[in-house]
Write a structure and sequence with these properties.
Keywords: Hydrolase, Metal-binding. The protein is of the alpha/beta class. The chain has helices spanning 27-35, 49-58, 78-86, 133-139, 155-161, 171-185, 236-267, 300-303, 331-338, 353-357, 413-416, 446-449, 475-491, 496-502; strands at 2-8, 37-43, 46-47, 89-94, 113-116, 192-197, 273-279, 284-285, 291-292, 307-310, 321-327, 366-370, 375-378, 382-386, 398-401, 420-422, 433-437, 458-461. It is built from 14 helices and 18 strands.
Length: 509
């Protein structure tokens, strides 16, 4: 068996024609839907980027136990499971620079080989000691270029952008070319997995110029392609410009996806190669008056994501829809199932191959969220977003880890000073783990950097209110979903404080 796994970042489901999007033609995503099963109720798990990838690699949620961080020594990652079970060769092609920061340790090394293309977002790629700060202040909108030079500043993007003068120099173009080279080189081989992982259409929304054709706006200011998270107070013409730049980048993703589909068509690979296409999460582009992710509630625009799945043994599923409730953690056991590899006992995701054969439920509900934020629960009809019950009554949360690093930094001394050993959990292979208190004023605390907005418990009926415009007053449904949430948290071995924080200790018992 052979598998191509394509992972985009921040690919909005509702922007794709296959999911009813009408803002922009996406002909190659339409082609993909015609050749695969399209999943209509696919959801995120742990957020944002690297927590989502840990879910993908391990088949279980991690946001209940720690924030953004590396793979852990006890994690079973699907490339290693495949190599041990059947000698399957895995190759990663990516421009997702978070793999190569402190908080991405351990991910790319699990593959048999990998290629990394530079220059996305804050990737510290080209050395420029004296950048032209005054010129850039006139070139870029002040909400995205503020002159900061600290490790979390946007400055590296402006350095990298000047290296991308031709379309072929864009990371998306380089990644796609490398993926096609791997496919051609290994066209006659069997038992391999190619993971093509594209940072686009994640912000900043910088696409080759031709993709802005047909997307005019009335905006006449400096470059505006990187939205500020939250409620930045953009004028209508600024919002239009940001959306147009996102759509231009989506159009570029669509065209380059088409080059991969062209290879599938030309080589007849549909008959012997599986294909999975998905994303880690979506992004708010002004919906609910918010931009970005992390800070606002995880509305459907962020949490409800696309998934396309083709398997040559289920050719009759091409062009069909699947209504089973699924989520990110299901991709790991699905990948193992494609190669006939055993699924480790701690995995909580479900293989989706049976859903290709028969669209039947695989679970009662899903939970998803970000460490320190709400825990959210969806049963396919209702979405329940639960926050701590009372402001000021915050329960002490802890990171459970053997890898105490954040996105771009080590844990600070104040975070390590009260370290204890805890566990082991059922998924840590008998290893006890560090139990580190969440320190509110730690520089790398995600909630410190991105304070939560509109942090109110809410229930939505997605059948009658798919846009989540009005919270539902239905106490009985809220109690039922709280009980479901608690059972799903227990399935993931959530620590005691996770229940106490949300007032769930006795719910559903």
């Amino acid at each position: 068996m052979r598998l191509i796994f394509v992972l985009f970042d921040s690919l909005n489901r509702h922007a794709l024609g296959a999911y009813g999007g009408r803002l922009l033609p996406t002909p190659n995503f339409d082609r993909l839907a015609a050749c695969s099963a399209t999943f209509d109720r696919h959801y995120v798990g742990s957020l944002p980027c690297m927590p989502a990838r840990r879910d993908l690699m391990t088949g279980r949620l991690n946001f209940l136990h720690r924030a953004w961080g590396p793979l852990e020594p006890f994690d079973n990652a699907f490339p290693e499971v495949l190599r041990a079970a059947s000698g399957t060769y895995s190759h990663l092609v990516t421009d997702h620079y978070h793999y190569f920061e402190d908080g991405g340790v351990g991910f790319h090394g699990r593959y048999s080989s990998w290629e990394f293309f530079r220059g996305q977002e804050k990737d510290k790629w080209k050395g420029l000691v004296a950048p032209p700060m005054e010129r850039w202040r006139g070139t870029y909108h002040p909400t995205q270029f503020d002159g900061r030079t600290d490790p979390n500043a946007n400055l590296p993007y402006y350095v990298s952008r000047e290296q991308m003068r031709e379309e072929a120099q864009f990371p998306l173009a380089l990644c796609t070319a490398a993926a096609l080279e791997f496919l051609e080189t290994n066209r006659g081989a069997d038992n391999w997995l190619l993971q093509l992982e594209c940072f686009d259409p994640h912000e900043p929304f910088f696409a080759a110029a031709r993709f802005r054709d047909g997307l005019p706006t009335n905006y006449r200011g400096p470059v505006l392609d990187w939205p500020r998270y939250g409620q930045p107070g953009y004028a209508p013409e600024e919002e239009a410009e940001l959306r147009a730049n996102y759509l231009a980048l989506l159009a570029m993703c669509d065209e380059y996806l088409g080059r991969l589909l062209d290879w599938m068509d030309a080589t007849g690979a549909w008959g012997d190669t599986a294909l999975i296409v998905s994303t880690d999460h979506g992004l708010l582009l002004g919906e609910h008056e918010y931009w970005g992710k992390n800070r606002p509630p995880f509305f459907e625009e962020v949490a409800h994501i696309p998934l396309f799945l083709h398997h040559p043994d289920f050719a009759s599923a091409a062009g069909t829809r699947r209504g089973a409730l699924t989520q990110t953690t299901d991709l790991m056991p699905t990948i193992l199932d494609i190669f006939g590899a055993p699924v480790p006992p701690e995995v909580r995701g479900r293989s989706l191959l049976p859903v290709l054969a028969r669209d039947e439920p695989v679970r009662e509900g899903v939970i998803y969220g970000q460490f320190g934020g709400a825990v959210n629960c969806c049963d396919g009809r209702f979405a329940y977003l639960r926050y701590p019950e009372a402001e000021g009554a915050e329960v002490q949360l802890h990171h459970y880890t053997l890898m105490p690093v954040h996105m771009r930094t080590f844990f600070e001394p104040q975070e390590l000073a009260r370290a204890e050993l805890a566990g082991p959990f059922g998924f840590t292979k008998g290893m006890p783990v560090l139990k580190l208190p969440l320190v509110p004023d730690a520089a790398a605390n995600m909630i410190h950097r991105y304070p939560l907005l509109d942090a109110r418990t809410a229930l939505y009926d997605l059948d009658s209110d798919p846009g989540q415009a009005t919270p539902l007053d239905a106490p009985a449904e809220a109690v039922r979903l709280a009980g479901l949430m608690r059972r799903l948290m227990a399935e993931q071995e959530a620590p005691p404080e996770a229940y106490a924080r949300l007032g769930l200790e006795g719910v559903g018992q």
